Amino acid sequence: HAKGSGRGQVRFYTADLNARARERLQVEAQLRQALEAGEFVLHYQPQVDMKSGRIVGVEALLRWQHPQRGLLGPLQFIDVAEDSGLIVGIGRWVLEEACAQLARWRDEGLPPVRVGVNLSALQFRQPDLVDNIADVLERYGLDAEWLDLEVTESLVMEDLPQTTALLEAMHALGVSLSIDDFGTGYSSLAYLKRLKAGTLKIDRSFVKDLPHDADDAAITRTVISMAASLNMRVVAEGVETRAQWALLAAEGCDTVQGYFCSKPVPAGDCARLLRSGSRVLDPVS
Ligand code: C2E
Ligand code: MG
Ligand code: MG
Ligand code: MG
């Protein structure tokens, strides 16, 4: 039976494992219909070049417009989607929709931006993933370089030989590759260069306590200089304050993404940001 429709229902903590299991099943059943019912939407969060203050990319972030519970973020359903395998179909939809959006913006004459799409572990293991990506790009007539596929550091490091081969195949298509949540996994630095990823995304946990936390400052500085020497770009995630922006700028970070520039917004709002000259902020010199 339905267990009420309060917000945050998925996160509700109870010792009653039975109730929690039932709740997961309910979410799963609802997720199963959500794709067909057209309840998923993508929000887009700008990535801003620190030198020019211009938007150089946007990350597509999945949202579920739940009929009773309102707009849900991925943390409220992505685990269930992954465990049930539903993430494969959902991930396909995300890729399709992000590319469709990129094509719509192009057709509206907006300046081109890279669109980041997150790939889940299970999606990454689908044998037809690379063909699927190639097919979508072709159908929308998109230059591959504008699609930026994000895979987490921990996912990449899980099975290095296999992921290296996969990333190579994607690289051969011409798409951009980013290592997401960098610093939270256990990277083999020797492999980093061979991964064909152009970008490291510094995890928000290292940015959160900047500029005060000396350890985090040292870590971000190290990642930024390491990326530079490997010829990789760096995006700092979760930048919320001007002080964080200023510190990262001083350390030579290329790009930032965070509430300080903009929260993730619906496609229409994102188009307005892109149209307004792509400038979110005055650059800090
Ligand atoms: P992520 O890929 O690391 O995405 C960045 C997350 O940080 C987003 O959370 C974003 O809203 C949040 N964020 C950005 N700037 C700030 C900030 O300044 N402060 C704070 N507190 N948060 C900030 P979101 O949208 O809730 O997504 C969470 C995670 O869910 C993503 O982390 C990603 O791992 C996953 N996800 C999102 N969309 C998809 C998708 O389409 N497919 C898959 N497989 N996973 C997705
Ligand atoms: Mg991401
Ligand atoms: Mg991340
Ligand atoms: Mg994350």
Features:
single chain, 285 residues, alpha/beta, 8-stranded mixed beta barrel, 11 helices, 20% strand, binds ligand C2E, binds magnesium ion, EAL domain-containing protein
Helix and strand arrangement:
Layout: H1 17-34, E1 40-49, E2 55-66, E3 70-72, H2 78-84, H3 87-107, E4 114-118, H4 121-124, H5 129-140, E5 147-152, H6 153-158, H7 160-173, E6 176-182, H8 189-192, E7 199-202, H9 214-229, E8 233-237, H10 242-250, E9 255-257, E10 265-266, H11 267-275
Parallel strand pairs: 2-4, 4-5, 5-6, 6-7, 7-8, 8-9
Antiparallel strand pairs: 1-2, 1-9, 1-10, 2-3
Helix pairs in contact: 3-5
Residues 45, 61-62, 73-75, 78, 87, 91, 94, 118, 120, 150, 180-181, 204, 237-240, 257-259, 264 line the site of ligand C2E.
Organism: Crenobacter intestini
Protein name: EAL domain-containing protein
Domain EAL: 24-278
Major β-sheet annotation: 8 strands, mixed, barrel
Count of separate DSSP helical elements = 11
| Chain oligomer state | single chain
Which hetero ligands occur in this complex?
ligand C2E, magnesium ion
